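User: I've been trying to design a sequence by hand for this structure and keep getting stuck. Would you show me what you'd pick, starting by listing the structure so we're on the same page?

Assistant: Good idea, let's start from the same input. This is the structure you sent:
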């Protein structure tokens, strides 16, 4: 059993993929299963925190003991849910895989196929973390980075652009890291540029590592 060392903490966690509709039957999404975010939520609850979990569509069970569970689909809905729940949380952990783009027009009716190619125009979605980073004040903001190349360089850029306290960078090229699996292989980089490398570990073990860091920062 874990020590209840986060009892005075209010933690907002985002998890899972977002989906962006093309028409009533089709959408654009990504490979996030929600396992990383849900496992952080479970550990935070076990350690006594009040957890708000904002989740895209996953096949996972809602963690027992969650203070608030908010189901969303699109990046826009996730953005609105995060903003609505910002005031009551001191710690924000963004493990969701958010779509950067959405179809410019969502068709009300199923798009019929023709002999021509189909071009779907995409608009930029808001960067949720970046927006929160602008207004976070003394809240602790933790991001993730899912990269296939130049992991550290890209992750460092994200810390700066999004005003993060630290970032958890998964190297998607390694087996047992990132989407779908029960393990992860990460480097954690803080806003001063210090890098700590971790071996392959279960997502629930990594969750404790992340929460330990958050706890250290939030004294
Ligand atoms: O869900 P699992 O299957 O367990 O997989 C876990 C995971 C690989 C999804 C997770 O560990 C992870 O890396 N999540 C972030 C994936 C991602 O979208 O990374 P990114 O590099 O595109 O985004 C960087 C950060 O900005 C993320 O914290 C993301 O939540 C945030 N972001 C991105 C785009 C956007 N429009 N708004 C955001 O807030």
């Amino acid at each position: 059993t874990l020590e209840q060392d986060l009892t005075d903490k209010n933690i907002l966690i985002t998890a899972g993929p977002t989906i962006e509709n093309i028409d009533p039957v089709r959408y654009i999404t990504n490979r996030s299963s929600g396992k990383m975010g849900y496992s952080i939520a479970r550990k935070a609850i076990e350690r006594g925190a009040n957890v708000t979990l904002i989740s895209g569509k996953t096949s996972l069970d809602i963690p027992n003991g969650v203070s608030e569970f908010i189901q969303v689909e699109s990046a826009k809905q996730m953005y609105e849910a995060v903003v609505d729940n910002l005031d009551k949380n001191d710690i924000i952990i963004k493990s969701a895989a958010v779509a950067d783009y959405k179809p410019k027009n969502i068709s009300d009716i199923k798009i019929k196929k023709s002999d021509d190619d189909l071009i779907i125009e995409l608009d930029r979605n808001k960067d949720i973390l970046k927006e929160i980073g602008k207004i976070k004040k003394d809240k602790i903001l933790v991001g993730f980075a899912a990269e296939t190349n130049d992991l550290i360089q890209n992750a460092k850029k994200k810390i700066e652009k999004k005003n993060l306290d630290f970032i958890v960078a998964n190297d998607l090229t390694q087996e047992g890291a990132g989407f779908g699996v029960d393990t992860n292989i990460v480097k954690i980089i803080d806003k001063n540029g210090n890098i700590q490398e971790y071996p392959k570990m279960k997502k629930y073990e990594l969750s404790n590592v992340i929460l330990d860091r958050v706890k250290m920062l939030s004294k």
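That's my pick for every position. To get oriented when you compare it with your attempt: Residues 16, 32-36, 75, 94-98, 100, 125, 127-129, 143-146, 158, 170, 178-180 surround PMT (CB under 6 Å). The chain has a mean pLDDT of 96.
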